């Protein structure tokens, strides 16, 4: 148990939010599959992204880390080497699912293992669509450990069953190694970093105007690039909420990625009456902006399925905004939360009830009656080993006078190792 930081009179200052997790994973993977060097600035040195770095090192790729910069010495699609032992995925769903797509088309076999949480998460959502290309991913009842027997793959024309950028990206990586172009159709648009980054590395991925159909042209020759990773809006989200909810606050979040497949939280906050200004917008490559957040009185909102992919990782902290807003909010169509690092619907409900929040658990989301006046029922909070639950509860702690404790605080290192230091600097 560790005591959380205690409640401030207002939050003030600037935060350079750490690099985007999704982009950090992908730049290592694409750099490895390219020819030449990929030089990365503002890489996210968190446990999850280091799982990707270590996995590619185990596949024979030289990756240097010099003064906070990362240099990937690309080997091309044919240059990966069979690993000498199991590939350790740690807690990282993104590493696991994307690498399955990459390894499916190689000429060797690999075994993937992960921690307890990752070993409970569904992997058949990747192995089954990959099988339509002739891939052989043998899971343990749909979970890790899994063996990927690399094969020559053929093209696919696949209608996705879940709205998941990880599944889509696994299919894209496999389709790049197939003999003919593949078509992947999404239910709802999900984050498009794999597609945009692949094209920056020299690939030829075509996305339809409605963003739902992706054509992957195979066998590209990718060339290494220099990339500065934008700040992660999913990490910025905790400071957005803190700035809105702690009275008398104004915070500047610098150089945050505002790719429109990720900015659902900005739309929700605006609908709820929150004051966020975008400044210094830069649209060369992945779009970026400084976000200036000012304390606001929020009103309730309704969030349904079609909006979920653009804010999937922000839903725990959005639920906290709803818990403070005037009126009744609903979040529905978010059943994917049940298969994240923990069952986030159950974890949020359990922890919010301890805080005295009026929340009702639904199979696919929540109903939350917002209030400025919570009566804390238990001071013993728990992150459930989930970084985003831990950070959500740390923001909640700023709003109550009761002394709270948070078990599993260290889980923030999955995506934001310096979270508590950055928060303390604003107080
Ligand atoms: C991610 C996609 C999302 C997200 C995860 C990162 C990615 O997962 O929740 O944190 O980088 O592709 P799903 O694809 O399971 O929705």
UniProtKB/TrEMBL annotation:
Monomer. CDD domains: EPSP_synthase. The lineage of its organism: Bacteria, Bacillati, Bacillota, Bacilli, Lactobacillales. The keyword Cytoplasm applies. InterPro entries: Enolpyruvate_Tfrase_dom, Enolpyruvate_Tfrase_sf, EPSP_synthase, EPSP_synthase_CS, RNA3'P_cycl/enolpyr_Trfase_a/b. The gene is aroA. This is 3-phosphoshikimate 1-carboxyvinyltransferase. It comes from Lentilactobacillus curieae. Pathway: Metabolic intermediate biosynthesis; chorismate biosynthesis; chorismate from D-erythrose 4-phosphate and phosphoenolpyruvate: step 6/7. It is found in: Cytoplasm. The active site is at residue 313. Phosphoenolpyruvate binds at residues 21, 93, 121, 166, 344, 388. Keywords: Amino-acid biosynthesis, Aromatic amino acid biosynthesis, Cytoplasm, Transferase. It comes from the Bacteria. GO terms for biological process: amino acid biosynthetic process; aromatic amino acid family biosynthetic process; chorismate biosynthetic process.
